[in-house]
Amino acid sequence: MSSPRVMIANVRDMLEEEEDLEPSGVGKDVVHQPGEFTDAEILHALNKADTYLCKKVMGQDEQFFEETDQTLGFIADQREYAFGTVHGGRIFKITAIERTDVNDGVFMDFLQKFQDMKQYDKVDSSIAETPYRNHFYIRGMNIGILPTPGTTVATNMKLYYNVLPAKMHVGKPKTGTQAQSATNTLILNDSPLIGRLIRRITDYYRGAVIEITSGKGIGQIRTISAYDRSTQVATMSSAWDTDNAPNSESIYEILPQLMEQYEEVLELRAVLSLLSKDEST
């Protein structure tokens, strides 16, 4: 994966050199200069393009970015369960729910029509004839389980879901960083060099890929396994190289979710977005 700064440079090259990218109605003699847009504006366009293209890919293949989580479980007499905090609120679509408290696991059936749930309300869950056994529905940021669980079973719901990309940004580890030799953490900076930090959502950066692109630790790439919104501490899935952990003078970059073969398309969409914005002002 290319880093955001490399992609920003690529977008600048496209803006300067590719006159054929001009939207219809714009004169072919219009050439955009590299400094016409700020790095922050270009990165914002890249983030929008990353999200848009990821949604398109997931619409064609639900398993392309599929991940799993098993933190939710049944609570006696509770029908609905909030999943908004799972994976930092970046869930795009729940594709399946597996019950792991039964032999070999059972995938629950998705109930699409909300009126079916209203119909279920008229049926006592103890009646054996009810058609709703191991069903679930989605209402807002809640999962509903039918029939309503009668017993508490910890962490027996395994969620399969598509996750949207974390917003890319570029920054230096915050002063007082915990990322020292033989540790696996880094404090993300709430005043990035380019872009912005999402501070208010726990685990927002979970699953995001981070690369050290300058200074001590350069070249190291890690996946973030946890993110604490109160401290901005990102925990890596594996430790930094011994005696070569990044420090407060290093530069880190949160990478795009799309794989490298899609990056030219991502950059092109960002260019078109910038040109459209420029012509509308």
Level of helix content? 10-25%
Please tally the helical runs, counting DSSP H or I stretches of 4 or more residues.
4
Count of extended strands: 14
Shape assignment: globular
Describe the structure in brief.
The chain is of the alpha+beta class and 281 residues long.
What would you say this structure looks like, in words?
The chain has helices at 4-17, 39-60, 114-121, 263-280; strands spanning 66-74, 80-82, 91-99, 106-107, 109-110, 135-139, 142-146, 153-163, 170-171, 185-187, 209-214, 221-228, 233-236, 251-254. The two termini are 33 Å apart. Strand 11 and strand 12 (221-228) form a beta hairpin. By secondary structure, it is α+β, with helices and mostly antiparallel strands.
